[in-house]
Amino acid sequence: MRRYENVFDYDFIHLANNKVEGCIDCHCCGHTGHCVLPPTTTDKFQEIFDKMIVADAIFIISPVYAAIPSRLTALFERLTSLLFNTSVINSDKNPLLNKKAAVFSYCSSGVCDDSSIKLIFDKFVMKNYRFDFTTYQYLNAIPNPQERYDDITDYIIDTLKSLT
User: Fold this and answer.
1) Crossing angle of helices 115-125/70-85, nearest 10°?
2) DSSP 55-111
3) Spatial CA neighbour of 72 closest among 59, 86, 54, 90
4) pLDDT averaged over the chain?
5) Would you identify the CATH topology of the domain 2-161?
6) Domain segments of the chain: what residues?
7) Is 94 left (phi over 0), alpha (psi -120 to 50) or beta?
8) pLDDT for residue 2 is more than 60
9) Among positive and negative, which fits the CA dihedral 159, 146, 69, 133?
10) To 10 degrees, the CA torsion angle through 113, 116, 119, 121?
11) CA–CA separation, 134 vs 71, rounded Å?
12) For 13-26, b where at least 16 C-beta lie within 10 A, e where not — what string?
């Protein structure tokens, strides 16, 4: 647990150092309520999911070197399987429902369009999600953030300040 300017306690989970294996489609999570793939030194899905459940806000900060980086895709895949197989993905029992959330994308030229990742993340934080446009009220709901921010850090810090 780290602290930001004596205001926020936070965990920074760097997926490049915390691999999430892909779902094996065993459907066991539907019976157990959690993913049955054992946590290992490289697979941190359950630890990450547990932190997301207790978090007051979830910030996803993603580089754009592919449409969606493979480890973020694996995290989303496992979230989908777990929430779907436990029948909570589109219900009031979803532990991620209505979480404060922000999604940021960046690339070598600066801040990038975050809408594609937001579209996918919508299904974890809301009910009745859509795949054609985001309807969730993200903390960073600035249209065309790349026109306002040159640096992803400034964009994230401004979003953090909106929480206070």
Assistant:
1) 20
2) -SEEEEEEE-SSSS-HHHHHHHHHHHHHHHHTT-TTSTT-TTTT-EEEEEEEETTEE
3) 59
4) 85
5) Rossmann fold (3.40.50)
6) 2-161
7) beta
8) no
9) positive
10) -90
11) 22
12) eebeebbbbbbeee
**Among candidate residues 124, 13, 16, the one with its CA nearest the CA of residue 69:** 16
- 2-6, 40-44, 133-137: which has the highest mean pLDDT? 133-137
Q: Which residues touch 62 (CB under 8 Å, ≥6 apart)?
A: 68, 69, 72, 103, 104, 105, 106, 117
The arithmetic mean of pLDDT across residues 104-112, rounded, is: 87
What are the tens digits of pLDDT across the range 23-38?
Answer: 888 888 888 888 888 7
pTM: 0.86
Q: What mean pLDDT is predicted for residues 82-90?
A: 88
Say if residues 11 and 51 touch (Cβ distance below 8 Å). yes
Q: In which residue are the tokens 């993340």 written?
A: 121
